[in-house]
Specification:
This protein is an alpha+beta fold. The chain has a single domain, classed as Winged helix-like DNA-binding domain superfamily/Winged helix DNA-binding domain (Arc Repressor Mutant, subunit A), CATH 1.10.10. The chain is 45% helix and 12% strand. The chain has a two-stranded antiparallel sheet.
Length: 100
């Protein structure tokens, strides 16, 4: 992966909100909210692989996720610390929406 990881100061509100505004991407973020890693095709989603790949790309480019290679697999994690430091309370508010 040639692009260096986005730093906390490089996180842009518009890109983060765009990425979190899609139901599939929000599902992916919720899956990682507890600190766990996610594979490319998590259970519970009926999305074509090419579409899912695009959703992961948008999350990664917005700085929301970090990708780690493990052999042939790619594992994604939520960059919660960076998001919380840059936009305090935003992720908690987005993740709590709809859980009432």
């Amino acid at each position: 992966m040639g692009r260096p990881e986005t730093g906390q100061r490089d996180l842009e509100m518009a890109a983060v909100l765009h990425a979190l505004g899609d139901p599939v991407r929000l599902f992916l973020v919720r899956q990682m909210a507890d600190g766990s890693e996610s594979g490319c095709s998590p259970a519970g989603l009926d999305v074509p692989p090419s579409t899912l790949s695009n959703h992961w790309r948008i999350l990664r480019e917005a700085g929301i996720t970090r990708t780690r290679r493990a052999g042939r697999a790619r594992l994604m994690t939520l960059r919660r610390d960076a998001l919380d430091a840059r936009f305090p309370g935003l992720l908690d508010a987005v993740l709590a929406d709809g859980k009432g």
